[in-house]
Specification:
globular; 4 helices; 6-stranded mixed sheet; 3-stranded antiparallel sheet; hydrolase
């Protein structure tokens, strides 16, 4: 009986997948989307391979679309997808990361590669879930929020984890106020001065 419990546990651990994507935009606010064949439009990226970290996987996906040497910036989104795989192939939980791919200056609206098997295009955010699909639309909304707020957006199943926007951290003093001192370098008159 104990062996079945361990098999169930380890089986659920290995069903989890990790994906990483790059949010690459144009100066006029369009987002780079890619697809293979007639598949769904997604952000550049994909499954994190064994021995690869999420940032490297996002960099690899962006480089496949835009050419070698492309890099990604800070983390924008962390999405925990419960009971489903973002790529549609499994039944376990998955985690998706979205990194900032920066802004490109281009007038190109679309292109194809790999003999026409892979397609890419810059899509306006207003085109919505008809183009993106609900999972990618959630990642995009979270990434745009993270860019606006200068923070990381945490999602669960493509929706904000807390149901409210995540505010940037509040600026805090390193030390609590000490009577008689105005800061680390300055001294103010003590109210107990004689």
């Amino acid at each position: 009986m104990a062996a079945q419990g361990l098999n169930g546990f380890y089986g659920s651990v290995f069903k989890r997948s990790t994906a990483a994507f790059a949010l690459i935009r144009t100066a006029d606010g369009r987002i780079l989307m890619v697809r293979s064949g007639t598949g769904a439009w997604e952000l550049p990226g994909g499954v994190v391979k064994g021995g690869e970290d999420p940032r490297s996987a996002a960099r690899r996906g962006a480089s496949e679309a835009l050419g070698a040497g492309f890099d990604v910036g800070r983390l924008l989104v962390l999405d925990c997808v419960q009971g489903g795989d973002r790529q549609g192939g499994g039944q376990g939980d998955s985690i998706a990361f979205v990194f900032d791919g920066g802004t490109l200056v281009t007038s190109v609206t679309g292109f194809s590669g790999a003999g026409g098997e892979r397609e890419a295009r810059f899509v306006a955010l207003g085109e919505g879930t008809e183009v993106f699909g609900s999972a990618t639309a959630g990642l995009l909304a979270g990434a745009v929020e993270a860019l606006d707020l200068g923070t990381v957006t945490e999602l669960v199943d493509g929706k904000p984890a807390r149901g409210e926007p995540i505010l940037p951290p509040v600026s805090r003093r390193m030390m609590p106020p000490v009577d008689g001192y105005e800061g680390i370098l300055g001294r103010q008159e003590s109210r107990f001065a004689r």
